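Aim 2 progress update. The chain analyzed this quarter is reproduced below.
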Amino acid sequence: MSVSRTSAARRRPPSAVRAGACVVAILALAACGDTAVTDIASRATPAPSASSTGTAGAQAGDGRGGRKPSAGSQADGPPGRAAAPAPQVPGVQPALIPGLGLRTRGRIPAETRQALVVTGDAYDSSLSTATLYTRDDPARGWRAVTPRWAAHNGLNGWADNHREGDLRTPTGVYGLTAAGGRFAAPNTVFPYEQDPAYTVSGEGFDGEPLEGSFDYVVAIDYNRTPGVSPLDRERPLGQERGGGIWLHVDHEGPTQGCVSLPVEHMKELLRLLDPRKNPVVVMGDAEWLER
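Predicted structure tokens:
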């Protein structure tokens, strides 16, 4: 499936009758863009106060004019538990994941041995790439096990402090603990449920058909209980923090907040993910990841 690389700056939000990706198309579900679990480095963050608003017009840190994260946002949260020093091999320096700064690397849990890195083109762009890394030999560090895959993220780009309806993808490091889809699992050891509820229809922001977008999904543990079904609607931080953020099949257009990959790459990702390696997704625009 080819992925359009047109600039997100020229996009305009659709009318109220047009659905987005990870849409409200699963009627009783709110998938891909209507929930939020804080990133792994910030799980102690308290739930928003009752005065928090979920309206798109009041998103702290999500203005189109540039990055302005609010105090206490995920971008400014405490660092995660640092990885234990890797055993040294004489003459060999453990390889790092390219494009990640010290702060971002510190958010990756010590026990994690798989990391899907999603790099956005820019803060306000819906275009990104994704690469899966592994560190099976800690002494040698990380290595890429897939090429760079073209991907899409939220229509309006990225959010350091995601809110429901902002049409942005939350930056951060999040666990990957459950998957599902309309089709049977593609030879994966990852926890997976097949369910006809993963059926979607309608049109995306560019008028593209959404059918098949949820044939394969992996839930991103943002404002959700890790390990439960991707269809679960519980939002530990409250509905105003948004959520239902998934990895799912690309429909050649921006999403409401999910990350989408071409179907062949979603299937390959599911074949490669291993729960014994405590996989995570590390995602954000390139500037955020380099911190």
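The chain has a mean pLDDT of 79. The chain is about 5% helix and 20% strand. These observations will guide the mutagenesis experiments scheduled for the next reporting period.
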